[in-house]
Write a structure and sequence with these properties.
heterodimer, A: seven-stranded mixed β-sheet, four-stranded antiparallel β-sheet, B: four-stranded antiparallel β-sheet, about 0% helix
Chain lengths: ~120, ~110
């Protein structure tokens, strides 16, 4: 069974940093592109970032470009999101989502349960 | 800034049929936008339903179908069940690897 388990969320002050992790199991992690998607309280979904399977391409939403960095460790079956210079508007549940192929344009299929990030003083 | 627009809310009777749409501020939605549809029930993570406009995932019930309709992506639910009450989001893929979700449609089954 494909499983994605996010962790690393919490309360952080504006301007602070946080690193999210997504532990994957039940599939060959290194073969699939992975996404981060967030959802602010009471709001809709917002795509954040995607990384190709071979770590040969990373892409970001304009709202996080230059502040967030997506990465992966295929030896640990883990996806990461390093978030710097955090703002109140980054407050959200962050989901990782597997795609059905190796590249950013492959469709998302399985989602984790999410981890909550709160940016507040 | 690219905006993807969905109906904020729709209501359907059990057993009925309803169509949700997804429009792009850049113009007509075509197959090149690889429209995806997701379902999110209250308090749960999203679940993928449709990819590349009209392809169901292996777990997607046959009553869900995707298409292009009048320059928009569309999700049609036929024979709606009470458990279909949820928020539905479309996702479009743009040049430069920009993925944009619609604002979501809250579907009420009443």
């Amino acid at each position: 069974e494909v499983q994605l388990l996010e962790s690393g969320g919490g309360l952080v002050q504006p301007g602070g940093s946080l690193r999210l992790s997504c532990a994957a199991s039940g599939f060959t992690f290194s073969s699939y592109a992975m996404n981060w998607v967030r959802q602010a309280p009471g709001k809709g979904l917002e795509w954040v970032s995607v990384i190709n399977a071979g770590d040969d391409g990373t892409y970001y939403a304009d709202s996080v470009k230059g502040r967030f960095t997506i990465s992966r460790d295929n030896s640990k079956n883990t996806l990461y999101l390093q978030m710097n210079s955090l703002r109140a508007e980054d407050t959200a549940v962050y989901y990782c989502a597997k795609t059905g192929g190796a590249y950013y344009y492959d469709p998302m299929d399985v989602w984790g349960q999410g981890t909550t990030v709160t940016v507040s003083s | 800034q690219t905006v993807v627009t969905q109906e904020p809310s729709l209501t359907v009777s059990p057993g009925g049929t309803v169509t949700l749409t997804c429009a792009s501020s850049t113009g007509a939605v075509t197959s090149g936008y690889y429209a995806n549809w997701f379902q999110q029930k209250s308090g749960q993570a999203p679940r993928a339903l449709i990819y590349s406009t009209s392809n169901r995932h292996s777990w997607t019930p046959a009553r869900f179908s995707g298409s292009l309709l009048g320059g928009k992506a569309a999700l049609t639910l036929s024979g709606v069940q009470p458990e279909d009450e949820a928020e539905y989001y479309c996702l479009l893929y743009y040049r430069g690897a920009q993925l944009v979700f619609g604002g979501g449609t809250k579907l009420t089954v009443l």
